[in-house]
Amino acid sequence: MARPRPLPPPQPPIGYGRLPIGRWFVFAGVVGLLVLVAGAMLTTGTLTRFSEARHEVIDVVDPAALATLDLSVALTAQEDAVRSFGLTADSRYLSAYARARSDEKAALGRIERLVPGPRLEAVRQASAAWRTQSAEPVLGGAAPTKEHTEVNDLRFGEVRAALNAQRAHLESLHAAKSRQLEQRASTLTFALGMLAAVLVGVLVLIGLIVRHVVLLPVAELTAQVRAVAQGDFDRSLKVDRPAELSELSGHIDAMRRRILAQWRRSEEQAEELRRSNGELEQFAYVASHDLQEPLRKVASFTQMLEQRYGDQLDDRAKQYISFAVDGAKRMQALINDLLDFSRVGRIGGEKVPLDSALPLADALHNLAARVAETGARVTHGPLPEVVGNRSQLTQVFQNLIGNAIKFRGDEPPAVHIEAREVADDMWEFSCADNGIGIEEKYADKIFLIFQRLHTRDRYPGTGIGLAVCRKIVDYHGGRIWLDSQQREGRGATVRWTLPGRSHE
């Protein structure tokens, strides 16, 4: 049978289906990474601006407001100390003035570092004018007069106005920075929400890619394979993506087409074999009846010719008659052996569990005359139960023991049958004799039909017996061979295997 030509390889998918699974995940990973980087940068910038606004409110504006309050308290303490000193001339108020003056400088320094500006400079100038025109003359020993009191009220009023302007500025700045902080907080919340939404979107994108590129094509290919497995052998297998599954589906479909073509070719061959077997059975019928009848007539009439006209024939004529009768009988035996060979596995070949000692007993019964004539001794060990056909296994034992008796040496034939269990509940049988033996180079040749190692004059036979044994053992699922350790002149051992009860 010609080997089927290989089908062409599947064509690669086109478009985005060319992308393998790894590329799809790399694509999704790159897109997700870019989105995450952009979201992280946006979130980082928003968080930085939020931190800056928070710093301006908590670390700048609020401390400046507290410092302005300290400045107001210090200036008020100075004005109270000057008034008290002018009224009482008590030196303790000078110390209070000095402490308040020191507190004023410290507050001015803090405010200068935090929010310098013209309003702070106005406070400094107003306080300096008040000290020059009102506080320092009183502290220098001048008695307070009505005019001095008016100047003090005027100048310190300017200080209060400057402080109020500074406080109003800080309150306005605090309100603006607070609004900015709230806006940055809202922006940060929005950015975090967008980042979370982007993460969810990336996960959804990866899920869609997995579903669209992997899960759906795998499900589609699984449904196609299931349909083929259920008997729809004409169903083609094809998925478009990804590249790996597309290529795999193409190879599976090519394999399906090859198997389908081979199966259909096998069906045609099986039909042809059934037709040939029918013709062979018809031939076997013809051979068993129509061909043997002329041979029987040739043999019988030739023998009758010798009986009736034997006294009129010379020795050469009688020899010719003997040759004709022998040829007809050998032809008849050959036809019978060929029929037996052709019937193996076709007619009456049912296999059932049986004790292998039964076909051996049948074989010995059929060979009883030859065993008695030659003085042969046939022994056997314990024999197992096997699955086989009794008549065919009888033929195996009969052919092997018959060969052992036929190809005997100078001593009376001795044949021993044994069996041992091998792997997978298979039994190995052996038939050992003490005959002339067989050279190892003929180990395979002896099981071929019509193969003979000796002349017909020395050892008669058709050369089919071992071929029949091989065909029967093959039909039973075993194998038969010649033991390779045997040598010519030392007897022969033939081994064969048969299935045990578990193969029923």
From TrEMBL:
> One Pfam family name from the record?
HisKA
* Classification via SMART domains: HAMP, HATPase_c, HisKA
Q: Where in the cell is it found?
A: Cell membrane
Q: What is its EC number?
A: 2.7.13.3
Which PROSITE patterns would you find in this protein's record?
HAMP (PS50885), HIS_KIN (PS50109)
Q: Which reaction does it catalyse?
A: ATP + protein L-histidine = ADP + protein N-phospho-L-histidine
UniProt-recorded Gene Ontology molecular function terms: kinase activity
What residue stretches are annotated with the Histidine kinase domain?
A: 286-502
List the protein's name.
histidine kinase
